[in-house]
């Protein structure tokens, strides 16, 4: 209906998107063929059928296995280009993309290889479709802080091509405090930092991300609702939350989208945004996430406009570039 049409038509920014999570099964098989790799599933339908998760970890196991087909510059280009075509179709005007270098360096793929492929697609989309971009290097929190520090050292010669730092992967038992030193080092280098927190992990992990890591946004953050004082702080400080509704549904953070607290957080004045996280795995790109929320949560036109505006205001674009999109 017309609120869904409004959501599709509004200019939007996507701020929580893992490039490895945009690998559609069709492209996974194409790249596997190209490299002579055998996937654990016989065909596209069988792979897609395996995308039936009961937790963050059950997804991550498949996500890291899928990334094995990404081997050279052309693969990272094809992956990023395919995502940007979907984003453009959804009227996404600005993207801030996570990539997980440790997933690839562990397999012998170099950081310059990943960066070259992603940037070739990003620069093309910027020229062709006017999509602006930032790249966020994300540390894997199930690995050690020493591994994150080594990754940052590896990235030092390329920091002019890296716009910020993130923290993702298995949240439980890997609190933000584990990465306090490497995040301080990143901030000394002038990099803005964000972290996944309060997806599966407790509200205290959100507090740690704010107080120990000095993040400028919280990725997910939906479990803040369990802590009224924290919720009030997030509203007061206008810390953006990059919420991913279909991800939360697929990973059983919520059992039914009608129970999702996105509208409640928005109405409480928090700077909530809608994002797709890992769209190839969770059944939808940005507009699919908007439409699913409009239907499940009966969002009003005003709420939809607020969400799209928030995405632009929560971005790392300067105020003039933001103003051109608002
Ligand atoms: N890596 C990719 N998607 C993720 C998510 N939703 N949470 C944590 N790590 C991730
Ligand atoms: Zn994520």
Automatic annotation (TrEMBL):
Pfam families (UniProt xref): A_deaminase
Give the enzyme class.
hydrolase
Q: Which residues bind Zn(2+)?
A: 16, 18, 196, 277
Where is the catalytic site?
199 (proton donor)
State the superkingdom.
Answer: Bacteria
What EC number(s) does the entry state? 3.5.4.2
Entry GO CC: cytosol
Q: How is the cofactor bound?
A: Binds 1 zinc ion per subunit.
Record-annotated Adenosine deaminase domain positions: 11-326
Organism of derivation: Microvirgula aerodenitrificans
Entry-linked PANTHER family: ADENINE DEAMINASE
Q: Which CDD domains match?
A: ADA
Query: What this chain does, per the record?
Result: Catalyzes the hydrolytic deamination of adenine to hypoxanthine. Plays an important role in the purine salvage pathway and in nitrogen catabolism.
Q: Tell me, which GO biological process terms does this entry list?
A: adenine catabolic process; hypoxanthine salvage; nucleotide metabolic process
Phylogenetic placement of the source organism:
Bacteria, Pseudomonadati, Pseudomonadota, Betaproteobacteria, Neisseriales
- Binding positions (substrate): 278
Q: Which Gene3D superfamilies match?
A: Metal-dependent hydrolases
Name under which the protein is recorded:
Adenine deaminase
Identify the NCBIfam families for this entry. aden_deam, PRK09358.1-6
Recorded family membership: Belongs to the metallo-dependent hydrolases superfamily. Adenosine and AMP deaminases family. Adenine deaminase type 2 subfamily.
Catalytic function, reaction form: adenine + H2O + H(+) = hypoxanthine + NH4(+)
As cofactor, the record names: Zn(2+)
Keyword terms, alphabetized: Hydrolase, Metal-binding, Nucleotide metabolism, Zinc
Q: What InterPro entries has UniProt attached to this entry?
A: A_deaminase_dom (IPR001365), ADE (IPR028892), Ado/ade_deaminase (IPR006330), Metal_Hydrolase (IPR032466)
